[in-house]
Specification:
This protein is mainly α. The protein has 2 domains: 253 residues, no CATH class; 190 residues, no CATH class. The protein contains 22 helices and 2 strands. α4 crosses α6 and α15 crosses α18. The two termini are 22 Å apart.
């Protein structure tokens, strides 16, 4: 039986959601300053209004809900899912004020895509938006990769008993340090060090390709934030194709592969355990699935004679495949090229890669390599049990940071999440097909949204049906938070209404 919802439950949820909202408001200061630096006065005013509105909402929520009680697991899940929705809506205000979004739904679509590190966009005239708005959209995906709750934990919430539960609700369940605030700080330390290195490397490449020096390092920062967070955004509508630079593409690939790895793996390597790279089940799983899906892509492209030589095939085919597998979504081909040149087999291989996705507790989405490894090892263990004598004790193991015993509950937990991902992929595809899109296109786009990838075969456009936009947004949200916190939010809302009816009946 689900317990009743009391006023204190709303206070706890409201207070911590308010703190997260304040964090979003403070984050908006960065694009405001960017606009001022580039003398984009209209854009600076848009962000000043947005900062004021977001901080007002955050402070009001925190003040009217102020409490010293620690959030329980249910509160934490609701806070994680609910604060994302609040952040998405408030973060869409600068988009609307800029005039580059045709509707508030389109603005929210872009901010949901940014926070969930998906990379799909409906923004109009992307090639001519302000530097402030460009900074904001890339900052969204960079912060979204680390997690907006992680941001609030680092600077506002501090070390509380319920803080780790909130991080789990956001999909960051690896406990790198005993103190939850130390975990959040460590995640940001890793990300900021890479940000410095990535901005310099990509900025120098951009400068070598003819971009003005004062803009080159902004481009470097944008592309790095997009790559590291596996977000897929780029400053121009042509994405990576705009640069026509193999060096930019290779450097970007390095960063989005690194960004797709588990933060705990980064921590293990940074603390001297470099052997973990070779032993970790996620890396083994990732290597096998990349080789398998890229082989299918090569077969498809060679059959169709799309690219003239191995260099061109690698530069286009491998970049797209690995971008999809890490759920980054950066692209160096046009969207309709998937349909016109890659064909069903090439699109199927890329769809499978996107569906599998990156590592657990990383910036990426999809099933996750850890779950794929666990499920495969679970199947292998069951086969060994069937082939072994009845009295033999057969146990499975997998290595993730340390040696783990493969229990039925672990395999079941991984399988349930994979089934839920498959379900949202199928639902999104069915809605797309209902609106007349071909099955291959509909599945490709649905998997891209649900796995937080962002590659598009041309379905995602401003003109697509409103319901399809909403379905893709729900897929992004549920896929990024890995379902449980979203289901808890829905359950909490339903229980709240039930509790209200019970109280009214009692009166």
């Amino acid at each position: 039986m689900i317990r009743r919802v009391w006023r204190e439950d709303f206070r706890i949820i409201g207070y911590y959601t308010g703190l997260v909202t304040i964090g979003v408001g403070l984050l908006m200061v960065i694009p405001t300053v960017t606009s001022l630096v580039f003398r984009e006065w209209a854009s600076a005013l848009d962000f000043a209004i947005s900062v004021a509105l977001t901080l007002l909402v955050g402070y009001v929520l925190a003040l009217i809900s102020r409490t010293k009680n620690i959030p329980g697991l249910t509160h934490a899940m609701v806070i994680a899912a609910g604060s994302w929705l609040v952040a998405v809506m408030l973060s869409g205000v600068p988009y609307m004020l800029s005039g580059h979004s045709k509707s508030f739904l389109d603005a929210c679509f872009d901010t949901m895509s940014g926070y969930t590190t998906t990379g799909m966009f409906l923004l109009q005239d992307l090639d001519h938006i302000s530097q402030g708005l460009n900074m904001w959209r890339h900052l969204l995906t960079y912060v979204g990769g680390q997690g907006i709750v992680v941001l609030a934990l680092t600077f506002l919430i501090g070390s509380t008993g319920g803080a780790f539960k909130i991080m789990v609700g956001e999909g960051k369940e690896e406990k790198l340090e005993p103190n939850v605030r130390h975990i959040a700080v460590l995640i940001w330390r890793i990300s900021l060090i890479y940000l410095g290195v990535g901005t310099v490397v990509l900025g120098l490449i951009a400068m070598a390709n003819g971009i003005k020096p004062y803009l080159a390092f902004f481009h470097g920062a944008y592309i790095f934030m997009s790559a590291w967070s596996t977000g897929g955004f780029a400053p121009y509508s042509q994405n990576m194709l705009y640069y026509h630079s193999s060096a930019m593409e290779i450097a970007s690939m390095v960063f989005f592969i690194l960004g797709s790895f588990n933060f705990a793996l980064h921590y293990a390597v940074w603390t001297g355990n470099r052997r973990e790279i070779l032993r970790n089940v996620e890396i083994v799983s990732f290597t096998i699935t990349v080789l398998t899906t890229f082989s299918l892509v090569c077969l498809a492209l060679m059959q169709r004679g799309v690219y003239p030589n191995a260099v061109a095939l690698f530069r286009r085919g491998f970049f797209q495949l690995i971008s999809g597998h890490t759920t980054t979504g950066q692209s160096n081909i046009y969207a309709r090229t998937f349909v016109r040149e890659w064909g069903p087999l090439g699109m199927l291989a890329t769809t499978i890669a996107m569906a599998i996705g990156a590592s657990a507790a990383s910036t990426g989405g999809g099933f996750k390599g850890l779950r794929m490894g666990i499920i495969v090892k679970g199947i292998a263990t069951d086969i060994r049990k069937l082939l072994s004598p009845e009295r033999a004790v057969v146990t499975g193991h997998y290595h993730h940071l340390h040696d783990n015993t493969l229990t039925d509950s672990v395999v079941k937990g991984a399988a349930v999440i994979v089934v839920l991902y498959v379900l949202i992929y199928v639902v999104g595809a069915i809605v797309g097909m209902a609106y007349g899109y071909p099955m291959v296109d509909a599945f490709f786009e649905s998997v891209s949204a649900g796995s937080n990838t962002g590659l598009s075969c041309g379905v995602t456009q401003v003109s697509m049906p409103t319901l399809l936009k909403i379905v893709y947004m729900l897929e992004m949200w549920m896929g990024r938070l890995e379902f449980l916190s979203v289901f808890t939010l829905f359950g909490f809302i339903a229980t709240s209404f039930r509790s209200m009816r019970v109280r009214k009946a009692a009166v």
